[in-house]
Every structure is written in structure tokens, then in C-alpha cells.
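Severity: low
Component: inverse-folding endpoint
Summary: output formatting inconsistent between runs
Steps to reproduce: submit the following C-alpha cells with default settings.
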């Protein structure tokens, strides 16, 4: 697909935020456990002054529809459980997504265990997708700061990181797990989680500059 660069800012893996998703090992939790995914390509409308989340679109390479990014959001209950990718409710195909490096390594190492169930799991997952996207709300503005959803999301992420980095990784690396280290990790990952949640809030609600360029979606 070709995109008008005068209208859209194109986000690919080369973008700093997208690259961060790939290399940050903590985000493997979001991918593998929560099923949160990031599309390989997303478009930001440079002609709109709306918050970023309301002027960002995800193109489907199969049917070429431009999806409002709120198609996959907390308010619609579709932000998670996207283990196989982002479902296109227009053509029923799957929009390709980035893969976190640690997620990739884990999937490779555990391949002999899950390969036998992949097709059946994907089939059952696809069967549930139409129902998930029946009543999408793509008009209501998202305001994570007002609803404080960024705090909840950040703390959940921080908790998962605390468990992973304090207990799981040391266990497999053969490192010692002590009470002192565990207690010190609690405020560290609480602050890190809140920082993560707020950064997501900031980037999704940041407003753009309005121009008079005509566009067709």
C-alpha cells in the first residue's frame, strides 16, 4: 500500500517508540500474556489537531481499510487478547504486528510444546473475534488521565515486571532470590509502572497541529 506522506506520518519499526516495543524485554509480557500487539505500520494524520489516539489509523494490507486506532482499545475491550495479531473486522484477516525480541526467543525455545496446538488455538481465537468487534465505540474521545486508567495499566505492568524480574528471571539464571532484593524491587517497579502508564497516556492524548490539507481515507 502507498500512503500520502504529506498527510500521514508513517510509523514502522524504525520509529523510536516502535523500536522500543521490539527491544524492551518487559514488553514480552504484554505480548505473550496479555495479548497486546502493535501493528507493523500505523499512520498518524498530520492535518488534524485531535489527540494522537484519535488521529491514528492502522491500515489493513489485505482489504486496505484504514482502521481507527480505537478499534483496539481498553474502552472497547479489544486492547488485549490479540495473541495472533490485530483482527480486521472488515475482511476477517489478521493485520501483521511487530514481535518483541524476547517474545521471539521464548517462542522459538518453546516451539516444540505449542506448535501442536497452534492451528486449533488460532481457529478458536478467530471464531471469537467477530463478536468482540460488534459494538465498537469509535466516537467517544479517550481520556486516560481523567479516568485514571493509565494508573491501573501502569501498576499492572509494573506488577508483572516485578514478578518477572525479581523471581522468574533470577530463578532460571540461577541467581539468588532474597527478601531484601524483593522489597527493594517493589518501589522500583511501582514507579517504573506508573512512568510507563503515564508515558502511554501522554503519547496517546498529545494533540497535533491542524492544517487545511484535503484527505480521503
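Observed output (run 2 of 3):
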Amino acid at each position: 500500500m502507498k500512503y500520502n506522506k504529506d498527510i500521514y506520518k508513517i510509523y514502522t519499526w524504525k520509529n523510536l517508540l516502535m523500536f522500543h516495543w521490539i527491544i524492551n524485554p518487559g514488553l514480552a509480557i504484554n505480548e505473550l500474556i496479555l495479548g497486546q500487539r502493535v501493528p507493523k505500520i500505523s499512520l498518524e494524520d498530520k492535518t488534524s489537531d485531535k489527540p494522537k489516539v484519535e488521529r491514528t489509523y492502522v491500515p489493513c494490507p489485505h482489504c486496505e481499510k484504514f482502521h481507527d486506532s480505537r478499534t483496539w482499545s481498553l474502552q472497547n475491550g479489544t486492547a488485549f487478547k490479540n495473541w495472533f495479531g490485530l483482527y480486521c473486522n472488515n475482511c476477517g484477516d489478521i493485520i501483521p504486528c511487530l514481535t518483541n525480541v524476547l517474545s521471539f526467543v521464548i517462542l522459538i525455545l518453546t516451539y516444540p510444546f505449542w506448535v501442536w496446538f497452534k492451528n486449533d488455538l488460532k481457529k478458536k481465537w478467530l471464531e471469537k473475534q467477530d463478536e468482540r468487534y460488534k459494538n465498537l465505540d469509535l466516537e467517544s474521545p479517550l481520556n486516560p488521565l481523567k479516568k485514571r486508567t493509565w494508573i491501573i495499566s501502569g501498576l499492572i505492568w509494573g506488577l508483572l515486571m516485578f514478578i518477572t524480574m525479581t523471581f522468574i528471571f533470577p530463578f532460571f539464571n540461577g541467581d539468588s532470590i532474597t527478601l531484601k532484593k524483593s522489597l527493594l524491587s517493589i518501589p522500583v517497579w511501582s514507579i517504573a509502572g506508573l512512568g510507563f502508564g503515564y508515558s502511554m497516556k501522554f503519547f496517546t492524548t498529545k494533540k497535533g497541529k491542524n492544517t487545511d490539507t484535503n484527505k480521503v481515507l
